[in-house]
Design goal:
- The chain has 216 residues and is an all-alpha fold.
- Helix content is 73%, strand content 0%.
- It contains nine helices and no strands.
- Helix 1 (7-29) packs across helix 4 and helix 6 packs across helix 7.
- The longest helix is centred in the middle third of the chain and has 25 residues, at 109-133.
- The chain is globular.
- The two termini are 15 Å apart.
- The model has no long low-confidence stretch (mean pLDDT 88).
Length: 216
């Protein structure tokens, strides 16, 4: 049986997902153990420019938006411009999360690691909510989707290559600018493994949430 899903409920779920994802990035960054792969380059950029993590995230993703236009040219579907408000909202919630988490930064390594894990769990939940709502997506994911569709690369493969390239570029920029590695640490590896793992774990519980989206 095919269900009709409430658009209002989907927007609410999507909004909650953005909040959780933004706070997840902040929580996984604040302990100083690295951050998620997709945020690694924006994080390194905060050491170079007097910008917030939200600002560098928005700036980098705007480049991914432009790349989508350059690849698709006249075939670019203008509905994908919906990625822009999603991006700006995400950047705002990252900075809000960074601000709210700045009042207590644990010195104990185990507590910092716990905060890193909480950040990964929050980010995974936010992403899972956004996928379930199916309203829009980030320009980085839009770029991966464009490459996948245009060049026949499986989305999963393109996503892994994309994330790996971002981390590699973060390492190169860090070494070139500081002669050492900044912003990429064990937390980056943890996030790369755990976020996808948490999303898979959430698939079963989220079936209950999906039933709540059915239009009544």
């Amino acid at each position: 049986m095919k269900h009709r899903f409430s658009k209002r409920k989907r927007f609410i779920l999507f909004f909650i997902g953005l909040v959780l994802a933004g706070f997840g990035v902040a929580l996984s960054t604040r302990p100083g153990l690295g951050t998620s792969p997709i945020s690694s380059l924006p994080y390194v950029m905060t050491f170079i420019f007097p910008w917030t993590l939200g600002m560098t995230t928005v700036s980098l993703n705007l480049i991914f938006m432009v790349l989508q236009v350059l690849i698709l040219r006249r075939r670019f579907p203008w509905t994908r411009l919906g990625q822009l408000p999603t991006l700006f909202a995400f950047g705002f919630f990252i900075d809000l999360g960074m601000y709210l988490s700045s009042f207590y930064v644990p010195e104990n390594y185990l507590l910092r690691l716990l905060e890193e894990l909480l950040g990964c769990a929050s980010l995974a939940t936010g992403i899972a909510f956004q996928l379930l709502a199916d309203i829009s997506y980030m320009p980085g994911d839009g770029f991966v989707r464009t490459v996948s569709e245009e060049y026949g690369v499986p989305f999963g493969t393109a996503k892994v290559c994309f994330d790996s390239s971002i981390v590699l570029l973060a390492l190169v920029v860090s070494i070139c600018c500081f002669q050492k590695i900044n912003g990429v640490r064990e937390g980056t590896i943890l996030a790369a493994v755990l976020v996808g793992f948490f999303i898979r774990i959430l698939q079963q519980p989220l079936r209950v949430v999906k039933r709540q989206l059915v239009k009544t």
